[in-house]
UniProtKB/TrEMBL annotation:
<protein>
    <submittedName>
        <fullName>Cytochrome b N-terminal domain-containing protein</fullName>
    </submittedName>
</protein>
<dbReference type="Pfam" id="PF13442">
    <property type="entry name" value="Cytochrome_CBB3"/>
</dbReference>
<keyword id="KW-1133">Transmembrane helix</keyword>
<dbReference type="InterPro" id="IPR036150">
    <property type="entry name" value="Cyt_b/b6_C_sf"/>
</dbReference>
<feature type="domain" description="Cytochrome b/b6 N-terminal region profile">
    <location>
        <begin position="7"/>
        <end position="218"/>
    </location>
</feature>
<feature type="transmembrane region" description="Helical">
    <location>
        <begin position="311"/>
        <end position="331"/>
    </location>
</feature>
<feature type="transmembrane region" description="Helical">
    <location>
        <begin position="253"/>
        <end position="271"/>
    </location>
</feature>
<keyword id="KW-0408">Iron</keyword>
<keyword id="KW-0249">Electron transport</keyword>
<dbReference type="InterPro" id="IPR016174">
    <property type="entry name" value="Di-haem_cyt_TM"/>
</dbReference>
<feature type="transmembrane region" description="Helical">
    <location>
        <begin position="88"/>
        <end position="109"/>
    </location>
</feature>
<keyword id="KW-0479">Metal-binding</keyword>
<dbReference type="Pfam" id="PF00033">
    <property type="entry name" value="Cytochrome_B"/>
</dbReference>
<feature type="transmembrane region" description="Helical">
    <location>
        <begin position="189"/>
        <end position="210"/>
    </location>
</feature>
<feature type="transmembrane region" description="Helical">
    <location>
        <begin position="121"/>
        <end position="141"/>
    </location>
</feature>
<dbReference type="Pfam" id="PF00032">
    <property type="entry name" value="Cytochrom_B_C"/>
</dbReference>
<dbReference type="InterPro" id="IPR036909">
    <property type="entry name" value="Cyt_c-like_dom_sf"/>
</dbReference>
């Protein structure tokens, strides 16, 4: 024992571990912490789980369009505990998004973003968007039809942003269309860039929790006054404070443990989400849809009136981000209790109803395109090389996922078998370049030649 104690003493003396940890563990926090305060740490537990399983997955995953799908099949079906590992990473992501949401709602409802915790809120908002970005980029790494389709939709939305849209889509996807570069880029985003930002921000967020203290549970009529708050808070701690560990933190530890057990349990029971077909759409039979936490966003875009869509795509996210960041500056003092802030509670309910309705609509609507359609140029033979080129494009550019020609293709859009009878070439061009209600705009995705070949082919369908 003496030997190990010596080693520990040496490590502790040279590194200062207990000097750093003990004050953190023993620092005083307001009494009467509640169960509603555990969601932030639950998010952190999920994050740690994601980092650990993510590293595990990265050892076997190959980020190239040739090998990605097969390396995932290998992980899922052959690698030791691979399916469970993928499962934990999937359910961990779901848990993280869920708890980030609940944590944010709790902070908003109890107005914990008010003085002096404005910066906690701001770093939290950025973390929220980084978390969503992780969900989105991770989905593409699966490199099956779901992930690829989701990114196609997003890219088309982005490229509609006036003036800079094409440029943004270019940078994000690494080219005009989803391909090898996209996968490489998304791998970089998902594994290096966003996690690096998250590590820094999570550290900062936690530092701020210690620096500014855990917010005391609100009481109606007890107002926050930036001039006196810090003094008052110190006074509260001195009089009634309890040590963080174990008085407050045992709830975090217990809840975190339950969360981790549930995630691992779900992963063992249900395993990872089944890989849908590889992005080559000629092999398959399922109806793809994005992961549940992406569905509200996609449903929103699917439902938006086409006339205002291009504006909303730009303005919507900007306004949302701006409003969230501005919140603590708009009201950083005064009442914190939800009982005295009925509009805040009501607004939160409205947002929740909105998001859940979108989720419901998205889950029910058959707005997914059909990926199992067989390439039309293999079904219908033609001796005209120009027609042949049009047909190939009709399939390769994804038109066929949504449109039927002579019985081949999806049903999301109108049947185009006889489109040349009613639509002339100019009308066709306009439709393809600009898209419409439920059809993506192809303006930035097709070259001039490709557009002409497609239009010539469609115009000849009579
Ligand atoms: C995501 C599904 C989807 C994809 C992919 C898609 N479309 Fe469409 N398309 C639609 C829908 C839905 C409509 C009709 C409603 C509307 O205009 O929004 C439509 C309408 C059209 C029309 C007008 C037909 C009419 O009778 O109204 C043409 C022509 C057309 N699409 C051609 C194409 C071509 C060419 C491509 C490939 C470059 C393509 N579409 C890709 C969904 C899609």
């Amino acid at each position: 024992m003496g030997f190990f104690k010596k080693i520990w003493n040496w490590i502790d003396d040279r590194s200062g571990i207990s000097e750093t940890i003990m004050p953190l563990a023993k620092h005083l926090v307001p009494p009467a912490s509640k169960w509603s305060y555990v969601f932030g740490s639950a998010t952190l537990f999920c994050f740690i789980l994601q980092v650990a399983t993510g590293i595990g997955l990265s050892l076997l995953y190959q980020p190239s369009s040739q090998n990605a799908y097969h390396s995932l099949e290998y992980i899922t079906n052959q690698a030791f505990l691979g399916n469970v590992l993928r499962g934990i990473h999937y359910f961990g992501a779901s848990g993280m998004i869920l708890f980030v949401g609940i944590h944010m709602i709790r902070v908003y409802i109890t107005a914990s973003y008010k003085f002096p915790r404005e910066m906690n809120w701001i770093s939290g908002v950025i973390l929220l968007f980084l978390t969503i970005a992780m969900g989105f980029t991770g989905q593409l790494l699966r490199w099956d039809a779901n992930g690829v389709w989701s990114s196609v939709v997003a890219a088309e939305q982005l490229s509609r942003v006036p003036i800079i849209g094409t440029y943004i889509a270019d940078v994000l996807l690494g080219g005009q269309a989803i391909g090898e570069h996209t996968l490489n880029r998304f791998f970089s985003y998902h594994v290096f860039i966003i996690p690096a930002m998250m590590f820094i921000l999570v550290g900062f967020h936690l530092f701020l929790v210690f620096r500014n203290g855990i917010s005391e549970p609100p009481k109606p009529g007890r107002l926050v006054d930036p001039k006196t708050y810090r003094k008052w808070y110190q006074h509260l701690l001195a009089k009634k404070g309890v040590p963080f560990w174990p008085n407050a933190a045992w709830r975090d530890a217990l809840f975190g443990a339950v969360v981790v057990i549930c995630i691992v349990g779900l992963a063992i029971f249900f395993g990872a989400p089944k890989l849908t077909q590889p992005p080559d759409p000629s092999i398959i039979t399922t109806t793809p849809s994005p992961d549940w936490y992406m569905i509200p966003i996609f449903a929103l875009f699917a439902l938006m009136p086409p006339k205002i869509e291009s504006y909303i795509i730009v303005i919507g996210p900007l306004v949302t981000i701006f409003a969230l960041l501005a919140l603590p500056f708009l009201s950083n003092s005064g009442e914190r209790s939800p009982l005295r802030r009925p509009w805040a509670v009501f607004g939160t309910f409205l947002v929740l109803i909105f998001v859940f309705s979108l989720l419901y609509i998205g889950l029910k609507a058959p707005w997914s395109p059909k990926f199992d359609t067989k390439p039309i140029y293999k079904q219908i033979k033609t001796n005209n090389p120009d027609m042949e080129k049009g047909m190939v494009l009709f399939y390769k550019k994804g038109c066929q996922y949504c449109h039927q020609i002579k019985g081949h293709g999806g049903m999301k859009g109108p049947d185009l078998t006889l489109i040349g009878r009613t639509w002339d070439k100019n009308q066709l061009k306009v439709q393809i370049i600009n898209g419409n209600k439920n059809m993506p705009a192809y303006g930035s995705i097709l070259t001039k030649d490709e557009l002409n070949q497609l239009v010539n082919y469609l115009a000849a369908l009579r």
